[in-house]
Amino acid sequence: MRSLRSPAAAVLVGALVLSGCTQLPGPAPGPSDPPGESPATATGVQPAGDPSDVVTGLVAPWSMAPLPADDGPGEGAWLVSQRDDAAVLLLTPRAGGGYEVRRAGTVPGVAHGGEGGLLGLAFRPRTSSAAGAGSGAGGWVYAYLTTAADNRIVRIPFRDGALRGEPELVLEGIPRAGNHDGGRLAFGPDGMLYATAGDAGQPGLAQDPSSLGGKILRMTPEGDVPGDNPIPGSYVYSLGHRNPQGIAWDADGRLWAAEFGQNTWDEFNRVEPGGNYGWPEVEGMQDEGAADQRYIDPWAQWPTSEASPSGLTFIGGTFFLAALRGQRLWAISVDEEAGSAEPVAWFAGEYGRIRDVAPGPDGSLWMLTNNTDGRGDPRDGDDRILQVRLAEVQEG
User: Fold this and answer.
1) Residue pLDDT tens, the chain, 396 long
2) Which of 49, 148, 231, 293 is the most exposed place for a label (fewest CB within 10 A)?
3) Which long-range contacts (CB under 8 A, 24 or more apart) does 280-284 make?
4) Which is it for strands 318-323 and 309-315: parallel, antiparallel or unpaired?
């Protein structure tokens, strides 16, 4: 277990709320440094200028997934999932600027209810080395969905800009409920598929190694258990999670995850194979001197009113985290030497709930709003994808 730190030194919370920070050069302004501590050296990237609309008029969108240039519609194409109607939308750049939006297909078997429905998407090229694949362009669209019986992962052939054929089951039996369904999918640097699974409102599942609930799961693209998973024969990569959603890898290939807390703390965790993150025994950082060494502390934490973290991405040395209830973008700088992470808030309250984030074209950041899902306050044009330019944080 890594060394524990006091919350004051390890995480910046409410005082960090910066609404629409756009001034460069220089680091984004933050709160006063704690007495006796030196200011941290600014590194990484931060938003520069005002976000602009990429696409508007989405309905309860949940996930964004880029497509390789040689696997269908061409360079710059994206897939977007809509939770409630199970639609997979295809975004393709127009020659004169902007994006065309059309439906690439609908994922069958989705039973929307509460937070469940069509959730995360991921894409994998369909090459001759992939099981069941033939030659030619196209690939597999992987989807995490809620059915009437469970949450599950399927993959569907994708070719010529559309879903084609019946879904192929990758993994079933992930517990489902009206909330805490997890739902993020991403391929790691190791080529394995990772999925976040919530505790489905049953906290005890998170500590049960035989359950898929309250876990981060790891599998081969075909749905087998990798031979080097931390628990032999098990999909469980880490446990003790309440409702993890965002996952991303840093420049050294280490996995990080964002997690919804209950009433006190949301978390930003570095995920170790076989690691136990404490839920429901622990929420947030443990008290120094009384820590249970079985559980790994988060690197950063927020009051639940300031985050409700969903999508997570890593760009230019900085993590960017989408906040739902917190209605802001968190930029997180990790200091490995100090063993700490410093979050700074951007655009607080300006665009409502933010569900997902992803690297955009030309080094920009894309943000997906989520105001039409029944919990937000829709604005004219919602929901939308926003693009913001990123620039290096300057020391000073």
Assistant:
1) 343 333 333 333 333 333 333 322 232 333 323 333 333 445 799 999 999 999 999 999 999 999 987 766 778 999 999 999 999 999 999 998 899 999 999 999 999 999 999 999 999 997 644 444 444 468 999 999 999 999 999 999 999 999 999 999 999 999 999 999 999 999 999 999 999 999 999 999 999 999 999 999 999 999 999 999 999 999 999 999 999 999 999 999 999 999 999 989 999 999 999 999 999 999 999 998 889 999 999 999 999 999 999 999 999 999 999 999 999 999 999 999 888 999 999 999 999 999 999 999 999 999 999 999 999 999 999 999 999 999 999 765
2) 293
3) 280/199, 280/203, 280/204, 280/206, 280/207, 280/242, 281/207, 281/240, 282/240, 283/242, 284/7
4) antiparallel
Report the residue count for the chain. Answer: 396
- For residues 341 and 301, what is the distance between their CA atoms, to the nearest angstrom? 9
Q: Is residue 169 part of a domain?
A: yes
Q: Which residue carries 């704690």 as its tokens?
A: 34
d(CA 318, CA 390): 10
Domains: count for the chain: 1
What are the residues whose beta carbons fall under 8 Å from the beta carbon of 302, sequence distance 6 or more? 11, 13, 265, 266, 309, 326, 330, 343
Q: What is the pTM of this model?
A: 0.88
What's 344's domain CATH number?
2.120.10.30
Residue 137 CA to residue 255 CA, distance in Å, equals 30
131, part of any domain: yes
How far is residue 177's CA from residue 154's CA, in Å, rounded to a whole number? 19
For 318-364, strand residue ranges (E) read 318-323, 328-335, 340-346, 354-359
Greatest CA separation found in the chain?
63
Centre a 10 Å sphere on the Cβ of residue 94 and count the other Cβ atoms it contains.
9
Residue 55 lies in domain: 7-392
Alpha-carbon gap, residue 344 to 115, rounded angstroms: 27
- Considering the domain boundaries, does residue 1 fall inside one? no
Domain assignment of residue 2, yes or no:
no
